């Protein structure tokens, strides 16, 4: 009875809401004005955005990133998506989430259509309820008592269930769409509606008129009268409407839609049955790839299986409609699966007619994995030879590299800020420094992979070793820094790691030539595939989901990039720092000449670097002293904009602009100055507002300096030295993949050592644990053994 009351309420809400909407928006007798309806927009917890939508139909989208331009979209909801697990009744929470996503897209100016299942399941629930109610009443009257006996429910015919469920299903949709000020309309069709020319025109005209009025058409096969599906009944070049998959494809092509989204209870297409050990989700499916797919059994409910979906998808693709098959039932993704697809995210299987010229990023990941393993088995001298050869290639091909870089700079002019342009720029001196750094890495790589760290004699003839090994496959994402590519590649080669590189499009020409040279160097020992440059239009967020292919992500770029990657990474550790808020504390016992020189170098030498000074802490006793005046004069000469901290501003009659936040990374010729009363207050300030990157004390008092060095909890802490020394090359590491503020594994400038992990090697002679029990014959020794010494300089 509860369900029947709920249905009645939904029907009532539908009529009340539609009537109120019609009279308040259009007026009782006003003609329909599509522009009036289109202005009705609502907000939800999914971000509201407006996108330019204009596209001539006729050719499907070639890549996922283009899906954001889709204007007309059909969403097909399979029976497994709409119905509950018991196949009796609707999954109301899931349905509400789908309606919300469709409403958001509709309110962006898109034209949304739904092809929905669920009438049979909804009707089955209603009819079962009616049968139970009827049987219980008859039984009570017949027996003269209220006690109910066990009752058998007859098998319900699908057509009858559909007839009983269609009105309730539509009322439910209307009630949900009304919450977003959107009207929906039901259209029931059969195969004849497409085969009969007049009926097809009528259907087409009705759908276009509904879309023109900003109404969401909800289409379903008329299962109350539809005949059973006939095998192999497709007409020449036309798909027969046997189920909602074929209906959605036929509707999508008929209405010249840009995108068809097919939601089912599986993630998409797999190269082997889903759930098997070797099953891999196919990200992009191309016509002719059917041989690579093994079709399993059909869905637990509904008429079509995955084979029917693929057939319908390929037919729609041939008709100019892009298709994505995805999971609409998974609780973690169903709340945003439709909007994610439209945003171009890697969800489900995307059908495309255009095969990329090169390998997919998944294939590149596999090549980097196998290439990295081969690289790790090379002799240290061979890895060093590859890096030396790469250093030679950088100098030998200097003109080609600089020419490619010039193209990048010309294309970036006016689009990038000056600090980013400076990062993008390469020069002869930069290439020479790169070559020197690579040769340092080559030398250090002689004793990296396979180095014994610890030896233990566990028992007689049972020895344990801990040795260094590569981490696996690294994904390094970098912005506007083409010099980063050979640095990171050399470190990966030295440590035996496979490498995926994703550079910014602003450095595309430079990255391409540098990657070609890197693979040329790798080729001398047959490991060319170990370093891969991702040239496909993969979004960074999609790369961060490849947790089965990537072992560590290292972002090199803005703090926003690092934060975005840390947020997007799913199950993959991220090495890096989100901010470079570096401090310098000038103590009351600081040298006048040293202080000014250190501040200038830390702030002005390269203000865009992550190790540049951002906050200058001045001891209160230094205010209005020659030391303070000299620092301020120098900053003026260097055209550094000063932001006053709260305490500093309170000491000044006419202060510079007060800082908006003490936790700011400017990345430019801007500096925050604040006053502190003691070294302890300086330390407290750093811990509160710093980013644990690099912090410096300037003082002549050794005791104060040591107190600062021991108590500041940052990756790099210096005494009387510029913050700019926080760098792998300046540390003598040869180069760095980045600076880490993490407390696990590696911290500070991460060079070769930070790209290694360890494994344990145990060598025995028929040893079993039972021999070491209380009554066993062997005893544990656990003796530390000498470790072989390194032979490298």
TrEMBL record:
The name this protein goes by in its record: Delta-1-pyrroline-5-carboxylate synthase
Catalyses which reaction(s): L-glutamate 5-semialdehyde + phosphate + NADP(+) = L-glutamyl 5-phosphate + NADPH + H(+); L-glutamate + ATP = L-glutamyl 5-phosphate + ADP
Aldehyde dehydrogenase domain mapped to chain residues: 361-623
Organism lineage: Eukaryota, Metazoa, Chordata, Craniata, Vertebrata
Organism in which the protein naturally occurs: Myotis davidii (David's myotis)
Gene3D superfamilies from the UniProt entry: Acetylglutamate kinase-like, Aldehyde Dehydrogenase, Chain A, domain 1, Aldehyde Dehydrogenase, Chain A, domain 2
Cited HAMAP family: ProA, ProB
PROSITE patterns hit by this protein: GLUTAMATE_5_KINASE (PS00902), PROA (PS01223)
Transferase recorded as keyword: yes
Main location, first listed in the record: mitochondrion
